[in-house]
Amino acid sequence: MSPQKETKASVGFKDGVIDYKLTYYTPKYETKDTDILAAFRVTPQPGVLPEEVGAAVAAESSTGPPHGIQVERYKLNKYGHPLLGCTIKPELGLFAKNYGKVVYECLRGGLDFTKDDDNVNSQPFMHWRDRFLFSIEAIFKSQAKMGEIKWHYLNAIAGTCKEMIKIAIFYRELGVPIIMHDYLIGGFTANTSLPHYCRDTGLLLHNHRETHAIIDKQKNHGIHFCVVAKALRMSGGDHIHSGTVVGVLPVAMGDIHVWYIPQLTEIFGDDSVLDFGGETLEHPWGNAPGAIANRVALEACVQGRNEGHDLATEGNEIIREATKWSLELVVACEVWKEIKFEFEAMDSLDQ
User: Fold this and answer.
1) φ, ψ dihedrals at 207, nearest 5°
2) Taking the mean position of all CA atoms in its chain, how far away is CA 211?
């Protein structure tokens, strides 16, 4: 399309958002033989926004999530409830052997998975190869003890795409079917390269979102996280780390504990991931009891929902009833009963 010659430079190239018709729209433009045209017509169904229709058309050209929810449930052999996990803490400071020990204790306690945190990649005190090996040992030992399939999401973020793929290859050869990538740190190009490899080799991909607040925190600037999440879905990824609601496959994490499980189960449903970090590991009796408490609470909520109870109004009572069968849950409920993660906005524009 030819540029609008009548538009003044001071108007057409001024900073900020410019009216479309001032710079691009030419009503009397006539096509030329050398033009390349891309035209299609979309007729939305009643009640469907044009923006959503356009997004659906754009998504047809994307690879999308490499596998999907059903494939993941098949690989993990988990059905009928959200996946339950834990981010290993502290983020920095553990040696690889101690890191693997924490992974084992959490998985032995009944969690479906554990995961690296965003800042855990490869440090002098814990090289990624050492962490991978001890984590894999923890997975296989916990599977043998519990009779369930267990996972650990290992962070493959690296300085280059070549190094990232090398890490993914090493992990796949160890025999565990999921890997993690910090997609905002790596960038969308790198994050598209990794899903291509995952699709070719059968790996699942969990996507973290470090630095997201720089992009989506301010209301008058940046990109809404829903847009970032949709862009990731088009780039490729089986999980999107979305954060918790109490504030692809959404991953609720951050400042959630056993008393929030009814709300999270009600809001997200079964096709979600509930990830408890410090709220698992800060159990007074240890890591495994913390995992047991979370699993008992989740199973009680799922059972109550399936029996017809309203988790929004009866959730706390369901948790209290479950404490009769689990001392670990009794202690966890006592620890977290008065704690709420509700803070005033730091940005005056958010108030």
Assistant:
1) -110, 125
2) 14
Contact 4, 12 (CB under 8 A): yes
Query: The tokens 């999270």 sit on which residue?
Result: 264
Handedness of CA 278, 270, 157, 288 (dihedral sign): positive
Q: 134-181, pLDDT tens digit by residue?
A: 999 999 999 999 999 999 998 888 888 889 899 999 988 988 888 888
211-219: long-range contacts at Cβ-Cβ below 8 A with a sequence spacing of 24 or more? 211/184, 211/185, 212/184, 215/184, 217/347, 218/347, 218/349, 218/350, 219/347, 219/349, 219/350
| Helix (H), strand (E) at residue 275 | strand 273-275
Q: Is 89 a catalytic residue?
A: yes
Residue 348 has what DSSP assignment?
Answer: G
Average pLDDT over residues 294-320: 93
What angle (nearest 5°) sits at the alpha carbon of residue 196, between those of residues 139 and 248? 70
- C-alpha span between 292 and 326 (Å, rounded): 8
Convert the pLDDT of each residue in 308-338 to its tens digit.
Answer: 999 988 999 999 999 999 999 999 999 887 5
Run of H or E residues at 14: none
Out of 67, 89, 152, 206, the active site residue is 89
CA dihedral (197, 202, 203, 206) in degrees, to 10, reads 90
Using an 8 Å Cβ cutoff, are 135 and 87 in contact? no
| Domain boundaries along the sequence of the chain | 9-59, 69-336
Q: What is the pLDDT of residue 189?
A: 78
Q: Which of 3.20.20.110, 3.30.40.10, 3.30.43.10, 2.60.120.10 would CATH assign to domain 69-336?
A: 3.20.20.110
| Closest among 240, 164, 242 to 206, alpha carbons compared | 240
Catalytic residue among 208, 239, 241, 257: 208
Is 208 a catalytic site residue? yes
